[in-house]
């Protein structure tokens, strides 16, 4: 029975990839002084009785490096979109021009850059915790198989494989964090 054990490393890798994808999304939402359509991805608008992403109520464009525009398709939704942006915590003051909402991206001061660096660090720590949770699940599966009669050599082999995968993803999180912090601190 112990020879039948096969740890689903593809599943563990997929779940760790999910943590990395989530980290990239969170990093994209951090404003670095340059306009980016992805910074609006986490903003949800109360539209037609439910929370809807901004890109589903209008077209998001970046016409110039320090400006994001949203062309709202339904005129009745303009105020809801503006309200969602104001309450999002992005620190951007929307300006209305008919059905077009303009978001001028102000220059970041040193204090705000440090704050954003800390927020990026928190996002990275959440990703590390998620990756470690996946690692723990894998280790639990191995321990269960060991209790069912897996040999100690096989246990060590599988644990080493899970640990190597974990180290690889933690290193990727650290590299992504370092890159994002450099981007934030760039003037």
UniProtKB/TrEMBL annotation:
It is found in: Cytoplasm. One of its GO terms (biological process) is cytoplasmic translational termination. Residues 23-185 form the Ribosome recycling factor domain. Keywords: Cytoplasm, Protein biosynthesis. It comes from the Bacteria. The keyword Iron does not apply. GO terms for molecular function: ribosomal large subunit binding. It holds the Pfam family RRF. The keyword Cytoplasm applies. GO terms for cellular component: cytosol. Belongs to the RRF family. This is Ribosome-recycling factor. It comes from Aliishimia ponticola.
